[in-house]
Amino acid sequence: MKNFQSLLGSLRFAIQESFIALIPYLTLSAILILAHSALLALAPKWRHLPRLETLSIFTRQLFPLLLALSVSYHVSFLFNTNRAIGSGLSILVFLVDAYGVRTESEFYIAPSGMLTSLVAPIVAHTIFHHVQRFNRKLVDETLVGGNLAQILNLLAPFLVAFLFSLALLHAGRGFLADITQWVPLRIDDIPEFTGLSIFVIVNQIIWFIGLHGNNVLNLVVSPDYLGGEVASGLSRINLINLFVGFGGSGAAISIALAVLIASRDRHMRIIAVAGLPFTFFNISEIIVYGLPVVFNLRLFWPFLLVPFANLAIAYPLVVLGGIGFIASEASWITPIGVNALIRGEGISALLLQGALLTMSTALYIPFVRRFGQSQNVPELRSLLGETLNIDERFRRQQAKNFQSMQGKILKAHWDARTAIDDLRQGELTLFYQPLICTQTHHCVGFEALMRFRRKDGTISGPYFLSALEDAGFASIVDRWVCTRAAEDIASIAEVAPQIRVSLNLHPDTLTDRGFVDWLIEKLAGQRVTIEIIERGIRESSELVPNLQRLNEAGMSISIDDFGAGYSNLSGLTNFPVGTIKFDKKLLDNTATERGRMLYSTLAGLCRDLGYSVVAEGVEDAEQNRLMGEFGVNIVQGWHFAKAMPREDALAFALRQNRPEAALPA
User: Fold this and answer.
1) Non-local CB neighbours of 520 within 8 Å, separated by 6+ positions
2) Is 301 exposed, middle or buried (0-12, 13-18, 19+ CB in 10 A)?
3) CA dihedral in degrees (139, 141, 147, 149; nearest 10)?
């Protein structure tokens, strides 16, 4: 029962949000009504008036369609269904159910579709949600693009939900038709005041559930009844417009005034200020949907009883002849006060309207004040928690995250043990890949790269490295790399002192102050570049000062794999970075014009910021030519040499740096 109440509360909240989202449309619709009425009064022969009238009517008729779309969007959050597919399903169900049985000449969006526009999305998403739970995934998302796979997997639930929704709505409509046949009593057969009271109360209830009460009742109540005289010179509908629903349904101008008098809630006051000008012309949509009054239980009773109280006071005064009226016409959009002066004899009608306005505002004030107080943060937090069932979801997600993390930890440990077992079957070594200056064509450095030599002599890359890092062993591996490289760096400096060696270290290692102390002691004064991957750059209490200390010890800092993640040059301003190495993916994209433009722009920007630019992954002469054209400082890749043992790398550097040496074609 509690879950059902929570669901109803969440559904009410979603519907409220759906109507609020339509405020811009309602504002535009109200402006068009006002413009058309004003032009009709001031310039009835204006040549563009029929066009404006058509636009105004069409805009109002779009309301059911827009409402169905808005409800579908907000209900999708409640049922956690795909928004795009769910919205398409809802609109199709709405259109087919509301207009599928009409003739071609009757295909227009009209108020008769409003009930369906509210119900159809809820029914469609409910069925779609439950059907999905029993659906088998026919397409593997790892083999087909994720979005395409999701759409294909949801195709069957979409079709099933579409058919079941139409069947359920059709059955519901038939049930309501049977009920209406059991109640043959017509409103004309009811005593005058009772009939008017029923009309007013039903009108308010229809408005409260989000539908346009006047338009809905016009479909079932005879125009002859509303046009019938209740007093000399005054019809029933005139009585309602003048003294019951002045300012729009629920005496909306009274709601707006009560908000401005009694509420301190900023949202409510903004809506009241925005809607008040329209209420003078009896247009209540902005107030009713914006506060909202729709499905707002805190405003239900005054919204229902204030119009009834107005009727109870105005009806006997009008019927007993205390107020006289003249047989003149005044559109429903005529401003309040003005309509009383036009229709009443003297100022008696105006005085009655003013008294009812004062009473209505006073009746709304305590309810509005209480509603405004309910908008405080603690209550909203409680409402959100109830709406989203957040405690239960949080506990489930926490348990799910814990299990997932436990699984990842166990997998990391298993992979690490496998990697260590593999390492025991061979040995680690360092290879060096040359870095070539694009201006001098000389070899100016090496990047130290880890390699694994098996017992049979075959060489492979460090396929085990990610497993060791995930298990938390990155610092152990990095210490080995630095220890082994220190020996080679000393040998390289004796033969080629201009060569700088780059060491790629894990970000977590560089946050370890003890490791950095050891590294400075080991390599201070050597021509060493410390590379850190771009996604590892982050401001922390240890990383930035440690990098600065390495820089002060004579080691340069380079950003590796730039462009592989979310490249952020502004994030590097607090780091002592001297070099940026572009990831190979950026170079691969230079096969296209946009890719070349991007590479050239980024390279120029980095140079302008004072960074030296290294291009990684240069594999052919065309790519090498582009790098020179783009102003890249240093290139690295198979076009020049693969990673090789220290002796071979030194031999390559000595050959490349001879005056007569030339770059490969």
Assistant:
1) 549, 550, 553
2) exposed
3) 0
Q: What percent of the chain has pLDDT over 90?
A: 22
| Mean of pLDDT over the chain | 79
DSSP-derived secondary structure for 351-402 = HHHHHHHHHHHHHHHHHHHHHHHTTSHHHHHHHHHHHHTHHHHHHHHHHHHH
DSSP for 32-87, please give it. HHHHHHHHHHH-TT-TTHHHHHHHHHHHHHTHHHHHHHHHHHHHHHHHT--HHHHH
Pick the more confident residue, 379 or 78: 78
- Residue 505 and residue 523: Cα distance in Å, rounded? 14
Both tokens of 287, joined, read 């107030």
Check: CB of residue 253 under 8 Å from CB of residue 364: no
Cβ atoms of 118 and 209 closer than 8 Å: yes
Asked if 581 and 561 count as a contact pair (C-beta separation under 8 A), the reply is yes
Sign of CA dihedral 7, 9, 13, 18: positive
Q: What tokens does 231 get?
A: 């007093």
Phi, psi (rounded to 5 degrees) for 209: -85, 10
Query: CA-CA distance, 7 to 14, in Å (whole number)?
Result: 10
SS3 6: helix
CA 231 to chain centre: 56
Question: Could you give the C-alpha distances from 196 to 188, 329, 333, 354, 655, in angstroms and in order?
Answer: 10, 21, 21, 22, 105
**Which of 289, 265, 249, 273 minimizes the C-alpha distance to 368?**
265
- With 50 as the cut, is the pLDDT of residue 427 above it? yes
Distance of alpha carbon 494 from alpha carbon 487, whole angstroms: 11
How many residues are there in the chain?
Answer: 665
In terms of DSSP bridges, do strands 556-562 and 528-533 run parallel, antiparallel, or are they unpaired? parallel
Residues 277-289, mean pLDDT to the nearest whole number: 83
**What residues contact residue 645 under an 8 Å CB cut-off, 6+ apart?**
429, 431, 432
What is the value of pTM for the model shown? Answer: 0.46
Tokens 């002859």 belong to 224
Shortest CA distance to 515 belongs to which of 469, 548, 555, 475?
Answer: 475
* Ordered DSSP codes for 589-633: GGGSHHHHHHHHHHHHHHHHTT-EEEEE---SHHHHHHHHHTT-S
Longest dimension (CA), the chain: 119
Question: Measuring CA to CA, which residue among 266, 641, 282 is closest to residue 432?
Answer: 641
Q: In this structure, are residues 200 and 209 in contact, taking their beta carbons and an 8 Å threshold?
A: no
Token output for 49: 């008036």
Q: What is the mean pLDDT of residues 600-614?
A: 90
CA 370 to chain centre: 32
Tokens standing for residue 659: 């005056």
Is the predicted pLDDT of residue 303 greater than 90, yes or no? yes
Burial pattern 404-422, b for ≥16 Cβ within 10 A else e, equals eeeeeeeebeebbeebeee
